[in-house]
Amino acid sequence: MGLRLDIAMILMLFLLKSTGNVQASIFDVKQYGAKANADITQALTKAWKAACASTGQSKVVVPGGTYKLGAVPLEGPCKGPIELQVIGTLQAPEQQSGDSWVSFNHVDFFTLSGSGTFDGQGKIAWGQSECSKNKYCKQLPINIRFNFITNAIIRDITSLDSKEFHINVLGCKNVTFQHVTIKAPETSVNTDGIHIGRSTGIHIIDTNIGTGDDCVSLGDGSRDITVEKVNCGPGHGISIGSLGKFPNEEPVSGVKVIGCTLTNTMTGVRIKTWPASPTGSASDMHFEDIIMNNVGNPIIIDQVYCPWNQCQAKIPSRIKISNVSFINIRGTSKFQEAVKLVCSKGVPCEKVELRDIDLKYNGHDGSSTYHCINVKPTISGKQNPPACTVKA
Ligand SMILES: *[C@@H]1O[C@H](CO)[C@@H](O)[C@H](O)[C@H]1NC(C)=O
Ligand SMILES: *[C@@H]1O[C@H](CO)[C@@H](O)[C@H](O)[C@H]1NC(C)=O
């Protein structure tokens, strides 16, 4: 009898231990005055402050229901690990100025979880955006910002119809995005899915991104980034850059994009730098096992990236691109230019490898093309279209 009880106890302890957050104190926004269909900016701020000030693990809960939420910065550092679980839908104001809606700042050991939705209500804002014409356009609010967050997990949440980027990651370290959903119409302006800059050890896995701009975009100072099992489309694809627009940019290094599927995106995987840039570098970038379904231009290195002629296109980019591999990339391209490697005349790309490329052109007016300009890649395995048929 006693022995059986002991075994039961041990089993229970084991189960408790393996479920993790045993002792988390709960801070339900309803205890802080939140009501469904009303504005919960105050309630969420108060619940967060209380949780953040408590020692041990804490968990702020937004239960099921729809809530209005104004711009809200949720600040750390906190006294212990903190989680925000969103089960309901949070709605941003339709008209909103400033550069962010929900931001998390300076939090260590943070979890954002729940099946809930961050609805940026961007429809009106997209109509007002000048960002398709002007590279220094006025910023609209980003749905969710992670600023200087360390050791964090973001899982299961949805970002919907953001006014600008959905998610922005700045100055972060060791953050995993898992099973996140990002949704906005193909026609929405500047709605990048996840943008990362000046951050180290960021992992995006099992995530679905359909939006109007890049699915994932990596800005300067992105280091040790993994994008794995991400489905992307519609949108502009997975991009490194654009780099070299501003002075004092940090290098990009260590990027792995693995096991992703892109469907009906404008481009597939792409590295882009502005001409006439300051000196800089992008290195150790690895793209492997990627399926392209009717993707505009599946593989691109573009060092003469100059949308709307906002640059001195004749001066070469000074961003050095090296150690890049594209391995086992297959499927179909919407446009003829399936592979387009256009490196800088000033600093040609180095150590570029292409292995097992199989990209069939979906059109009927010829076959797909493969450009290699200012680069001499290492070629192996299957090459469809034939490698480097266009060299100038
Ligand atoms: C990274 O963050 C996760 C989530 O908080 C944590 O479990 C893990 O220990 C961290 N890794 C390191 C190396 O600190
Ligand atoms: C090339 O990049 C990969 C990561 O993609 C890295 O593991 C490797 O060490 C790099 N090689 C060199 C020679 O820098």
UniProtKB/TrEMBL annotation:
**Which residues are annotated as active site?**
236
**Which SMART domains does the entry mention?**
PbH1
As for subcellular location, the record says: Secreted, Cell wall
At the top level of its lineage, which domain of life is listed? Eukaryota
The main location is secreted
Single GO molecular function: polygalacturonase activity
GO biological process terms, alphabetically, are: carbohydrate metabolic process; cell wall organization
Keywords of this entry: Cell wall, Cell wall biogenesis/degradation, Glycosidase, Hydrolase, Secreted, Signal
Signal peptide positions (record):
1-24
Q: What family does the entry list?
A: Belongs to the glycosyl hydrolase 28 family.
What name does this protein carry?
Exopolygalacturonase-like
Tell me which species this is from: Quercus lobata (Valley oak)
